[in-house]
From TrEMBL:
Belongs to the short-chain dehydrogenases/reductases (SDR) family. InterPro entries: NAD(P)-bd_dom_sf, SDR_fam. This is SDR family oxidoreductase. CDD domains: SDR_c (cd05233). Keywords: Oxidoreductase. One of its GO terms (cellular component) is membrane. Gene3D superfamilies: NAD(P)-binding Rossmann-like Domain.
């Protein structure tokens, strides 16, 4: 039999990027499953609304400020989360946004910020929260990637390079953490209906979709719901010890095709 400690009944979790979209849905799903949750984001007031709803339903949740591009903010978040909930057993790294642009037209500072959030931010969380997990010989770290790391999409600026780098980092971590009791995994969603992209100008959104169609990256108009991705994160975390879901890809299901009259 594998020599793993069983999951303790109480597994405190932190979710970075929990103010909206996938992060918010993930915090809700984990809380419903009985995990105490620390919701972290720059928009802490939005996190507090979700945390209050969780507490009203009998769950355990706290909202804390978090800027993953700031090392001091990450340290403060980790310390406050542990003080409020106890030793952290689960980390979900999902902070980030998208600035739609051609790479050669994107402002270099904006490009750098995308990398600092999606890749650098994930590593800052890792550096702060994974070493205590290793000492306790158990834990789950789930990184939210994107299918752009597998099939690159145009007009995503620094987002594609950042997510591609993130997946390389996670693959490396999986080798480095083997045998420690800490599982590093990634969930790779396809197009998802969230707040990201809703602030784009109409002409920008149109150009993005036209380019996706041109390169065969938009086979149908359906998008995932944030809850679909959150369910995948919960499945990764809930996998029985002795097994590990290293990467889970979630794509939107296509609409049903019209019946072929000739088939009758």
């Amino acid at each position: 039999m594998p020599r793993f400690d069983p999951h303790p009944q109480r597994r405190p979790a932190v979710v970075a990027g929990a103010s909206s979209g996938i992060g918010l849905a993930t915090a809700q799903v984990l809380a419903t499953a009985g995990h105490p949750v620390a919701l972290g984001a720059r928009r802490v007031s939005a996190c507090e609304e979700t945390a209050a709803t969780i507490r009203a339903g009998g769950g355990e949740a706290v909202a804390l400020p978090l800027d993953v591009t700031d090392g001091d903010s990450v340290k403060g978040f980790a310390a406050a989360a542990e003080e409020a909930l106890g030793p952290i057993e689960v980390v979900v790294s999902g902070a980030g946004d998208i600035d739609a642009a051609l790479i050669h037209e994107q402002d270099p500072d904006t490009f750098d910020q995308q990398v600092r959030v999606h890749l650098g931010g994930a590593q800052r969380l890792t550096a702060e929260l994974v070493p205590p997990m290793i000492r306790r010989r158990r834990g789950d770290v789930v990184f939210l990637s994107s299918d752009v790391a597998r099939s690159h999409r145009p007009r995503m600026g620094g987002y594609v390079p950042a997510k591609t780098g993130l997946e390389a980092m996670v693959r490396t971590m999986q080798m480095e953490l083997e045998g420690t009791g800490v599982r590093a995994s990634m969930v790779r969603p396809g197009p998802t209906k969230t707040g990201m992209g809703t602030t784009w100008e109409a002409d920008v959104a149109t150009a993005v979709l036209q380019d996706w169609v041109h390169w065969g990256l938009a086979r149908h108009p359906y998008f995932l719901r944030a809850s679909d991705v959150a369910a995948a994160v919960a499945a990764v975390i809930g996998t029985q010890r002795g097994a590990q879901l290293t990467v889970v890809e979630v794509e939107p299901e296509a609409p049903l095709r019209d019946e072929d009259p000739a088939a009758g």
